[in-house]
Amino acid sequence: MPSTPDLDDPSLAPLLPSAPLVSAHGERILLLSALPQAWAAHADAMEESGYGVVVLPPRLPLPPELEAPDLILLDAPEPKHLGLLARLREAGLTVPILVLCLAGVEGMPASAMKAGASDCLLAPVRPRELLLRLAAHLRRAPSKPRSALDAFGHASMAVRETDGWCVWQTALARTLMAEFFSGGHFERGRLPPELLLWMHREVLRRRVGAEPGELTVLPQLRPDSRPSTAALVARSERRLSFSLHAVDPDALGEGQWLIVLHEPAEESTPKPAATP
After folding, report:
1. What are the sequence ranges of the domains in the chain?
2. In angstroms, rounded to a whole number, what is the distance separating the alpha carbons of residues 237 and 72?
């Protein structure tokens, strides 16, 4: 019987997809576990890959100040823990829920799926396998607004100052970045180079007391695109502006900034005055 390949084996790296191991948009992961220390290495791996991770004990109600997660990991070593899964689904929670259960407990995977699990992983699970499962389910999950800012036509994202890593973003920010930038950096979870350079300069300006400044960009064309003349004209009329805002480290985390995006309203051409 062939043995199961070790997904952490370096020799397999060229055969495994690299993109799914990295969060593209700083998705929030909620880990519900009575033994958080047992998942410390996995939590570190998720955070290093760009996910925001919150670890809580497996009980309801969840803290009211907790932001809605994009995916839940439920550590369920015994069948009784599946009651929490059923209650989460009964409460109308539709995000992917991955259940981590012990291989020796008979019938657990089937019971977990029946209770509403999106997937079931048998412990011990390797960090690399966990990251692959997370990415697979998050790709299939429907996109949704991340905050009330979207409802009012705003877009924002929290970005790590050191390397331009996007910790989280609103749905509208994701759409605008995809429409205006062609290099693929943002799809891999990082700011495009020109935006990162602006952010670093703006941070330095703020620290010496300069007035806040904005960056405005034109849409970039993808090298393989062949847009029509009408599409080019329409594209050339669009602008996307960025403004940088300091945030409370307790709210977003140390070393992070909030970037707000908006498309400036097109100035209407003044009509000539009527001849008396």
Report:
1. 22-140, 148-262
2. 42
pLDDT of residue 197: 94
Q: CA 200, 202, 203 angle in degrees (round to 5)?
A: 65
Cα–Cα separations (whole angstroms), residue 234 to 22, 64, 218, 230: 34, 44, 11, 6
CATH no. of 148-262: 3.30.450
CATH class of 22-140: alpha beta
**Cα gap 258→249, rounded to integer Å:** 11
Hey, what are 121's tokens? 């992983």
Question: Which of 150-158's residues contact partners 24+ apart within 8 Å by CB, and which partners?
Answer: 153/262, 154/260, 154/261, 154/262, 155/260, 155/261, 155/262, 156/258, 156/259, 156/260, 156/261, 157/26, 157/258, 157/259, 157/261, 158/26, 158/247, 158/252, 158/253, 158/256, 158/257, 158/258, 158/259
pLDDT of residue 196: 93
263 near 214, Cβ under 8 Å? no
Q: Which residues of the chain have pLDDT under 50?
A: 1-22, 24, 143-153, 267-276
Please give the backbone phi and psi of residue 270, each rounded to the nearest 5 degrees, phi first.
Answer: -65, 140
pTM: 0.47
